[in-house]
Amino acid sequence: RIxxxxxxxxxxxxxxxxxxxxxxxxxxxxxxxxQSQSEAVQSGPFRLLDVTDSKAFYDAAKEHRADTIIHLAAxxxxxxxxxxxxxxxxxxxxLLSALETARALSCxxxxxxxxxxxxxxxxxxxxxxxxxxxxLTMYGVSKVSGELLCDYYHHKYGxxxxxxxxxxxxxxxxxxxxxxxxxxxxxxxxxxxxxxxTSYIAKGTYLDMMYMPDAxxxxxxxxxxxxxxxxxxxxxxxxxxxVEPESIAASIRRHIPDFKLDYQVDPVRQSIANEWPDAIDxxxxxxxxxxxxxxxxxxxxxxxxxxxxxKLRADQSKIS
Length: 320
Ligand code: VAH
Prior knowledge:
Blueprint (H helix, E strand, L loop, with lengths): L1 E4 L4 H14 L4 E5 L6 H4 L3 E3 L5 H11 L3 E4 L5 H6 L1 H21 L3 E3 L2 E2 L10 E3 L10 H20 L3 E2 L1 E3 L1 E3 L11 H12 L2 E4 L7 E5 H13 L11 E2 L3 E3 L1 H8 L7 E4 L3 H9 L3 E2 L2 H7 L7 H23 L1
Helix pairs in contact: 1-8, 3-5, 5-6, 7-9, 7-12
């Protein structure tokens, strides 16, 4: 029985649907700080939860009889950089509540890390699983600290903590939530909506990316893996592709030949992206628990363009 925090976020809104398909609607308790009418949430139990309230966290998990906690609630990079103290309190206070609940109730535990856990002096290409991690963004500091805290809870209390260093995640179901890699999500939406996009990330900025279905299956595959095989836990490098704005635009033009891309670089989000690797190495994830992906850039673009075209057509028919 699973408790998910941040269920209305970019990962959560897709993960809830998949977990309920596999484990049953009633087995998956969706929680978030705000209410929602989304069908993803309405298909099973939902509860308002402030993850920094450790008693409320414990009570929610206890009443749900949770044996697994998937903790997604956090502020992402750009929003965290504009409000670092709030980001620290939410990202680390929430994580501590989650880990204390997992310890008290002997739950298996997952929380995502990110390529943001690497800094400017980390090797940018084939970034190793074990390497220098000195990020200078608050989001990155909270991700490295989170990795260490999760390893501590495993080492000290035996909590079965596991994590993934996610690249930028692309999805069509939830709007972007204050990240830096969200430029790629915005580009797909605008390509279908208006045929043009002005990128706040500069041409030639390579970043790791992954389509959301691959991210969701990576979480489930990792959590179902035999813990004895894991030499690492918090957190595994995973990636599907290394792309820059022009490569995504070229892929989109296979469907929308006249798509226009121009640039208005946002110095804050560009400086965040400059800290991050160009292409990380996911060998340990493949070797230790069979990580694999189904979507490369063009296959992701095919699915994003068709799903967004359907969504916009449906929205227009509602208006007319
Ligand atoms: C962000 N989407 O942009 C998140 C992610 C690797 C980036 O952590 O903040």
